[in-house]
Design goal:
Elements: E1 19-22, E2 32-37, E3 44-61, E4 66-81, E5 88-96, E6 100-108
Antiparallel strand pairs: 1-2, 2-3, 3-4, 3-5, 5-6
């Protein structure tokens, strides 16, 4: 069996400013830093990705339940409504061009 790609992920559990750096260790060339604001969020969550491109996103609750999913195309910023979510901690998984995934934690308040 041929080994697949390996990824490194870091979870911000200390309520520091949320930025994340992902690197596909096999390719060695991919590096991105995505951020979300506002955090904590009430109505709308904005996601900023430094390099415009295509990708998919999934919004998961702390228990792993999928709440929303979508994609972005040729953009480096997009938003999503979060007013319908219950108060709590959520994780936004971003998959860039189908090969590198990064996860950002945010808090939803009412």
């Amino acid at each position: 069996m041929t080994p697949g790609p390996s990824y490194e992920a870091h979870l911000n559990v200390f309520n520091c400013p949320v930025e994340y750096e992902a690197q596909n260790r096999n390719a060695g060339a991919f590096s991105a830093t995505a951020s979300v604001f506002p955090n904590p969020a009430t109505d709308q969550l904005w996601v900023t990705i430094p390099e415009a491109g295509n990708g998919e996103w999934q919004l998961l609750s702390a228990d792993g339940k999928l709440h929303k999913a979508g994609n972005w195309q040729a953009a480096n910023q997009f938003s999503m409504p979060v007013s319908d979510l219950a108060r709590g901690i959520y994780f936004l998984q971003l998959t860039h061009a189908g090969y590198a995934t990064e996860t950002i934690r945010f808090v939803k308040v009412e």
